[in-house]
Amino acid sequence: MTTRSGPRARLLRAHPALRVALAYLAGGLVAALVVLVGVGFQPSYGRSSAWGGIAYDDLRRAPVARGWTTDLAAVLAPGVPPSCVDLQAFPATPGRVLVSSQSLAVSGGFTLSSCTAVPNSLYAHRVALFDPTTGRVLWTRDLGLSGAPGSIVEDVLPTSDPSRLVVQMVDDDSGRFVTLDAETGRTRSTATVPGVALGSNYQNERLVVVNPNLDEGATESKLWSFDDLETPVWTGTLSQSSPPQFLGDTMVATVDGRSVAVDGRTGVETPFASGRVDVRTSMSEGGVLYGRERSSGIPSTTVKAWDARGRTLWTAPLPVDGVAGVSRTCVLVTTPASPDLVCLDHRTGRERWRQDLGTQPFAGMLPGATSDDVVSARLSTGDPAGAVTRVFDGDTGRQRFVVTGEGAQLAAAGRTVGYSLDTAANAQFGSRSRRMAAVDLASGRILWTLHGPQGAVLDFWAGHLVSVRNGEVTGMHDAGNAHPAPVLE
């Protein structure tokens, strides 16, 4: 048997308490090392509110169809063959969507002889407020559309009043706004307008621009306030190549070659920033307009920030091509001398970081993102293998990951998962897809891929994943927690 000798052994034999203390110290060092190593490999996810206002499901395992299925074709288009019914869902109140129906022969981009024989009047009457977390129809409403060819629900316009829904329709070649009570579906008002809104670039939660002619480059447009849909607050000529920008109750637009501000309450038109703002290449966020000025018709290469009154908040001291996007902390601009994406601090205009983007044109944030990560994408409308997405830390500009191929066409994000839609398999279905992939937002690792059932499309309704087929909607839920995300305390 070997015995200890020497000063260290004698000290330990003489002081048993010291042996205990040293054992605790050794254990503490091991624990500290484990914590440090764990921190080094701990994935990082966002904690902020969802970008764009809609929180998306965070599905870390391939979802399955279970829980509920609702036959909305029977609710909205009774008597129509279910295979001919295409459901359109529009964000309405928080967590809910307003659903309408139309002929698949029209919305699908192809002709189905069995469906073209069905009169449009059987589709275009009803809407339903739907809860995609439970599969419940909360109420239905007959909108009284004529059923003439082309009669359709175009959109649900966001407003600052959560108690009402403004439904935009086209009926007999004229536009209509129907205001519904969000709680009961009761009709509050109906207004006929000479045209339709041209999409999200022509509206905010207070104001909407209606254009009577979608084909001409510059036509007479009317500005309406959601507080009074009977009478327009302003009439003028807007170029469709230069969409307006909205700063609260103010619309900034190009009229007769100069930038003007239109008060959405009174319709009073005044020059905006001396009338020299290049509105076409500008972007607004949080009540601030970011863009360039023009001099003698030539845009300057210096980006500025203006408030709703046209006062300059800052000027960035570097040449830029234009504003590519806006994030929580950055105004993202591109430079003429290099393929760089530059992050300017949105409060001061100071350069925070820059990255060489090559030929990737898009930069911004994903709808639903809870981080400040900036996404730069080169999308592919053909082979999805040609898609490339790079994700950068919005604070430092450090590249977090690159994803290519099937997972690269990112379109939305949960807290830890980004969702990629295969636009090649989705050419006929707008924002919906027959195929989807999920990407871990810390590493870029593909978590799962999903193919919709035969004839079904996958879609997010109010941030919740659903499968839609033959007028039936089924909730898609996480089958388990195969790739659990860390719990943020």
| Total individual domains | 1
Which percent band covers the strand fraction?
35-45%
Determine and state the CATH class. Mainly Beta
Q: Over the alpha carbons, how many angstroms does the gyration radius reach?
A: 28 Å
CATH architecture classification:
7 Propeller
Distance between the termini: 52 Å
Poorly predicted residue ranges = 1-40, 424-431, 481-489
pLDDT averaged over residues: 80
CATH topology: Methylamine Dehydrogenase, Chain H
Kindly state the number of beta strands: 36
- Can you give the helix content as a percent range? under 10%
Sheet with the most strands: spatial strand order: 1-36-35-34
Globally, the shape reads globular
Classification by helices and strands? mainly beta
Describe this structure in words.
It is built from 5 helices and 36 strands. By secondary structure, the protein is mainly beta. It has one domain: Methylamine Dehydrogenase, Chain H. A 4-stranded antiparallel β-sheet has the order 1-36-35-34. Strands 2-3-4-5 form a 4-stranded antiparallel β-sheet.
